[in-house]
Structures are given as structure tokens and as C-alpha cells.
Amino acid sequence: MSPMPPLVEPAEPLSAAEMQRYSRHLILPDVGVTGQRRLKNARVLVVGAGGLGSPALLYLAAAGVGTIGVVDADVVDASNLQRQVVHGESDVGRPKVDSAADRVAEVNPHVTVVKHPVHLDSTNALDILRGYDLVLDGTDNFPTRYLVNDACAILGIPEVWGSIFRFDGQVSVFWAGHGPTYRDLFPEPPPPGAVPSCAEGGVLGVLCAAIGSVMATEAVKLVCGIGDSLVGRLMVFDALAMTWRTLNVRPNPALPPITALVDYDRFCGLLPEQTDGAGAVSAATIDVHALRDLLAARERGETDFVLVDVREPYEREIVVIPGAVGVPKADVIAAAQTKQWPADLAEGRRVVLHCKAGGRSAEALGALLAAGRTDAVHVAGGVLAWAREIDPALPTY
User: Fold this and answer.
1) Among candidates 313, 296, 317, which has minimal Cα distance to 305?
2) Could you give the CA distance from residue 362 to residue 375 in angstroms, rounded to a whole number?
3) % residues pLDDT > 70 (the chain)
4) CA distance 218 to 87
């Protein structure tokens, strides 16, 4: 396909310092001074300052993108540092947008960083994205992916999308009106828990560099209007085999146009924490403080229940909540479907489920409730909340 028209007009002439900094760009025939001035005038939003956002932010800043927005409501955790190279040891506990902004300023003081320390949702997405020429989505959850796609489609903004899991990565460009969107590739979200997040399944740290650098490359090409973009193509990377494959993606004419944002948690089938009118968790969900009290009462012989850890065995090797037994989520769901209960899920004994952060245990709870079990609850926040609020000496991952 032929190159897309440049996204932005050139900015004012470059300063002498900028001419020196970007000299290797200026001698590229396809970039040159005009392309560099387009980069200077560009406003690019990066959603997620994590594994993919990190290399993308660094290279966008180094390339001279004039304004870079960063959306992330999270803080830096030590477990991020294996792959999120925009952050360092001294940033642990800091908001990711602050850490990323400081690092970008160190890479290129000519870049303006706009920090959005918020959770992107249907109430704020259009307002935040509206001020940008291009969006990079490096998030790792389906509600946000569909949200960013739909907001970009409504606003007519191109979206550079990347995804990673274990040793595999994917990257494409979605742009309603010019090619397919994320919904053309994935019309329906997978069932909750069917696709583990990187926090659950792991990811090779250096894989982020491969996918994130392609995302930054596509952003530069779109801004400057050079080369063949990935609009209509999906690149698939296998790090173990060291292979790239390119698949063609076409718009689905049967899909209705995207005209409004929706409740994306509900659309993706996530089980929200149930609350009563006062805001307390319902009988189907308990917090880690209630779990601590239950474990103490069980130790005194005042109550009886089984605490079931639905994570995988290799996760239990990292950290466990004392007194839990391991039954992987798949086994819990299989038992619920057949109603052939193993000893640890025997009827007549209350079951308390937990996982890493609450997502998988909520899914397992849903399966038990659907099977007619009324004696089950799950723990909001999982082992991460336990380590954060009850026993900070425990490792996290």
C-alpha cells in the first residue's frame, strides 16, 4: 500500500540544538528537516507506562515527538523492573507517570510530557484522547483495549496497538475509515480468565523491546507520512523461534459503526466486586482483613473452611497465603461443571477462593455459584492484597 498522508503539519523551524540532536534523522531522505518538524509538532498519547509503553516512550522521546501524553494510574512495583525499562530501582512506589516523565525529560529536554495519572474509562477517554494526533495502546487488559479502540474510532484517530504474552507478541495499526479496527480482529472479547494477563502467565522481558520498538516505528512513520504502515496488517512475533509473520486484516462490513462508548467491564464479562448499599463487600466477596480474621478463628477452632488457592503451582512456589491449599482454577471449573467435587471442594464445608489479584478467583467463584454452591466466597485483591495489607514481608510478582 502507498504511504498514508502525514498526520500533522510541520512545526516552526528547528533550533540549532535540535538540528544537532536530530542530525541522523535530517540526512534520511524520507524524514529530513520537514519530517523532523512534523515530529516536533506531533502530539502522541501512550496508554500504559508498562512493558510496551516503556520502550515506546523512550524512542518517541528520542525521535523528537514534541508532546507525549502518558496515561497510567499505577505505581512502580519491583516486579515491573524486569521489563519496564522507563522505570528504575529508585522509582519503586512512585506513580508511573511521574517516573516516566522524569526519564523522558532526561532522554530529551525538548519534549513536553503531559501526565494523566488516571484510570482510563468511558467517562474520561474521549476528553483525554481528543487532544492527540495518535494513540499507542500497550495495555494488558481487554476492557481498556476495546475502550481505546472505540474512542479512537469515534474521534478518527489512528491507534498503534501492541500485545505481549510469554514469548509471543503482536502489533498492528487500527484506524477507522482507513482500515480495520481492533473489533474487526477481535469482534468479541474472550471469556473472563480465558487469556491470562502477563502478571498471571509471565512475559520475557526483552520481548517488550521488540514489540514496543515496532510500535514507536509505526508512530514515527504515521506522523511523517512515510513507508507502508501496518494498517490492515497484523505482525506476529515468536521470540523462541525468532520469526515474524504478517497476516492481512480486513474491515468487517457487517459490524456496525462505533458511535458511543459502553461499560467495558460489563462488555468483557468481568465480575465486579459486589457491594451492599453501604459500600461494603457482599457475602460473595471478602477482603484480606476478613480473611485474616477467619484464619485466626479457624486456628482457634471457632470456624471451619478451606482456603483454596486457584493459581498455578509455579506461582505458589513464589508466595502463598499460609493455610491455603492449591487447586488450579481449571480444576475448580471442571469440578463445578461435573459436580464431582474433590476433597478440598467437598460440599458441606465453606470454600474461600483466592488467586493473585482477584480475577481468577472471581471466575472460579462464578462457576461454583452457577453449580449451586452457596458456601463459597472469594478474596478481593488476592495474594497481592495480602502481601500489601497483611504481611508486607512476603514477596510479590
Assistant:
1) 296
2) 14
3) 93
4) 23
Q: What is the DSSP letter of 191?
A: P
Active site residue 198: yes
C-alpha to C-alpha distance for 278 and 286, rounded to whole angstroms? 15
3-state secondary structure of 385: helix
Sign, Cα dihedral of 16, 18, 21, 22: negative
**CB neighbour class for 225 (10 Å; exposed up to 12, middle 13-18, buried from 19):** middle
Question: Cα separations (Å) of 284 from 222, 231, 349, 370?
Answer: 48, 45, 15, 13
Q: Are 252 and 264 in contact (CB under 8 A)?
A: no
DSSP, collapsed to helix, strand or coil, labels residue 159 as: strand
Per annotation, catalytic residue among 152, 198, 208, 224: 198
Strands 350-354 and 376-379: parallel
The predicted pLDDT at position 113 comes to: 98
Q: Is 232 left (phi over 0), alpha (psi -120 to 50) or beta?
A: left
332 forms beta bridges with none
Which residue in 182, 189, 183 sits closest to 230, CA to CA?
182
More confident of the two residues 254 and 198: 254
Contacts (Cβ under 8 Å, ≥6 apart) of 62: 107, 108
The cell for 104 is: 523522558
The model's confidence at residue 280, banded by pLDDT at 50, 70 and 90, is very low
Length of the chain: 397
Strands of the 159-165 sheet, one edge to the other: 112-116, 67-71, 43-47, 134-137, 159-165, 168-174, 233-238, 243-248
Cell matching residue 276:
451492599
User: Which residue intervals of 156-307 are DSSP H helices?
Assistant: 182-185, 198-201, 207-224, 264-267, 288-299
Give 257 or 201, the one with higher predicted confidence: 257
How many CB atoms lie under 10 A from the CB of residue 42? 27
CA distance 31 to 36: 6
Place of cell 454452591: 373
CA proximity to 324, closest of 344, 346, 307: 307
Residue 44 contacts residue 69 (beta carbons within 8 Å): yes
CA–CA separation, 138 vs 159, rounded Å?
A: 10
What pLDDT does residue 2 have? 63
Q: Which three cell numbers stand for residue 313?
A: 503451582
Beta bridge partners of 70: 46, 115
DSSP summary character for residue 89? G
